[in-house]
Amino acid sequence: MHLLKWPASVFTKGNDHRPLGESNIHEALFNSLGDVVMLIDQQHRIALVNQCWESITGVTVSSSLNLLFTDFLHPEDVKIWHDIIRKVFNSHDSQLVWFRIISADGDIHWCEMRLQQLKADEHYPLSATLCDITPQIRNEQIRDASHRSLQSLVNRLPAMLYRSRNNTSWTMEYVSSGCEELTGLRPEELINKPQISYGELIHPDDAGYVWNQVQFCLQTQQTFELQYRLILANGESFTVKEKGRGLYSESGMVLGVEGFVFKFE
Fold first, then answer.
1. Last residue of some domain: 82, 107, 139?
2. pTM of the predicted protein model
3. CA-to-CA distance for 198 and 258, rounded, in angstroms?
4. What pairs with residue 131 in β-bridges?
């Protein structure tokens, strides 16, 4: 995204040589933009900014001019600001960066800035566009929190949730933390491991039944419910119940199997 090429007279005083009212139109257009547009001078002070800036910071344009841009940054993000300036100078190209701006009332706004040199052959001034992405960040944070809550719930269940390949070894691509209580193996010991597989834990007398039942249900795209025995490395044997279903491509090809297994008392 490139900044509009504004006439130099829009940003300077003395427009007597221009038609009456034209500079006011340019100023109104500049201030009507939904994103912040600004110039940063060699001392990293705000040399020019439109009124959208006030909606983010709560500070008027007139009060913001000649203040350091870093005065508005979260202290932890000041280094990011200096790093992005170096990248602009080294690449001679625009750079995109996210950081936090602290408004006058103490609210934190996540912002996305596109920063570049105003003139290709001069380091300063720097031109920038800035937009408030706080709503998107908050939505992501909510989704992350929901995911963590769901993952915590899954890990507390007295069962093993899984996703596996459709092979006789039932090679696991994902297992929940409940696998350790069920099988005595940690998730990392079961996932994509050729040395030991979930299939090897199934009682030899039950392995054929499990395979055949699952294959029948995959072919008819039904869910399956099974009851069979597991044998652990220490020789312990017990009965489990499993409920699962196939994962299919749009063409109906079997991509894998997912479900859950729990100890049947």
1. 139
2. 0.47
3. 13
4. 112
Residues 53 and 108 in one domain: yes
> Using one digit for the tens of pLDDT, what is the confidence trace for 52-92?
999 999 999 999 999 999 999 988 889 999 999 999 999 98
Q: How confident is the model at residue 146 (pLDDT cuts 50, 70, 90)?
A: low
Q: Are residues 165 and 90 in the same domain?
A: no
Contact partners, residue 128, CB within 8 Å, separation at least 6:
36, 37, 38, 39, 40, 113, 114, 115, 116
**CA-based nearest residue to 192, from 214, 162, 212:** 162
Q: How far apart are CA 145 and CA 194, in angstroms?
A: 34
More confident residue, 115 or 25: 115
pLDDT in tens, 90-133: 998 999 999 889 999 888 888 999 999 999 889 999 999 999 98
* CATH number, domain containing residue 226: 3.30.450.20
Q: Does residue 175 sit in the same domain as residue 256?
A: yes
Residue 260 CA to residue 163 CA, distance in Å, equals 9
Closest to 99 in 3D by CA, of 48, 58, 142, 56: 56
